[in-house]
């Protein structure tokens, strides 16, 4: 079952790349394994998927301990400052940096561990009340500030688009995040290269790829529906 679903996602990613005139290598598939058991990840790992996204610190660190060390873990969920210490050094990329306080905490923890933590800035492009993330016009001043930090490297932007029936409705959201990244690039801020655009989930990753996504975060499409009662 996992094999077929993965194949279907892969087929659709390729088709979206073809439509957009992009190369498949430009897009990284992040398999969002939250709530899913280690056994399922072992299965997709065997099928060649080595990049996983989790949204809870405890779940990420538990899976990190058990699973092969060449897995690349991405923290995609809202991150509380008091939990930063558990994931710095274990996470390839933190997608959800949305406050100075959080950035300062990551900086401090990465300095302690003598590493550089790659991060994305989360942007609430659609301005949904319920969502985390900076407003579009807050992003450049924020990046200018944290670009001075020695142990953080800003690699790009992330957004969580609204849930919509028709994925095409999210096209402007993705296009706006892309445009914002171009504006930031044009500022030539030292130490900042916002080449990663993390956008698109099961419902809308094809549209996101057409609009320039370089990372898509796909959970349900690979692992099936989540059961939060477990
Ligand atoms: C759960 C989650 C996803 C994956 O959602 P699906 O609709 O299951 O693909 C992607 N991004 C974030 C931030 C998530 O929390």
From TrEMBL:
PROSITE patterns: UPF0001. Residues 7-226 form the Alanine racemase N-terminal domain. The keyword Electron transport does not apply. GO terms for molecular function: pyridoxal phosphate binding. The modification N6-(pyridoxal phosphate)lysine is found at residue 34. The keyword Transmembrane helix does not apply. Its cofactor is pyridoxal 5'-phosphate. Keywords: Pyridoxal phosphate. InterPro entries: Ala_racemase_N, PLP-binding_barrel, PyrdxlP_homeostasis. Belongs to the pyridoxal phosphate-binding protein YggS/PROSC family. Pyridoxal 5'-phosphate (PLP)-binding protein, which is involved in PLP homeostasis. This is Pyridoxal phosphate homeostasis protein. It comes from Mediterraneibacter gnavus (strain CC55_001C).
């Amino acid at each position: 079952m996992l094999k077929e679903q993965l194949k279907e996602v892969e087929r659709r990613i390729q088709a979206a790349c073809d439509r957009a005139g992009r190369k498949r290598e430009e897009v990284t598939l992040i398999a969002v394994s939250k709530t899913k058991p280690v056994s399922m990840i072992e299965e997709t790992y065997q099928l060649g998927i080595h990049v996983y996204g989790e949204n809870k610190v405890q779940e990420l660190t538990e899976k990190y301990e058990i699973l092969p060390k060449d897995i690349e873990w991405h923290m995609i969920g809202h991150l509380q400052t008091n939990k930063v210490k558990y994931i710095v050094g274990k996470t390839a990329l933190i997608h959800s940096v949305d406050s100075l306080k959080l950035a300062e905490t990551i900086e401090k923890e990465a300095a302690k561990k003598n590493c550089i933590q790659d991060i994305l800035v989360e942007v609430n492009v659609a301005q949904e009340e319920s969502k985390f993330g900076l407003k579009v016009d807050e992003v450049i001043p924020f990046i200018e500030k944290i670009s001075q930090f020695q142990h953080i490297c800003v690699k790009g932007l992330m957004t969580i688009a609204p849930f919509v029936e028709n994925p095409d409705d999210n096209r402007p959201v993705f296009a706006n995040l892309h445009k914002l990244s171009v504006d930031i690039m044009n500022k030539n801020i030292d130490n900042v290269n916002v080449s990663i655009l993390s956008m698109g989930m099961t419902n809308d990753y094809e549209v996101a790829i057409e609009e320039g996504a370089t990372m898509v975060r796909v959970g349900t499409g690979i692992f099936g529906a989540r059961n939060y009662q477990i």
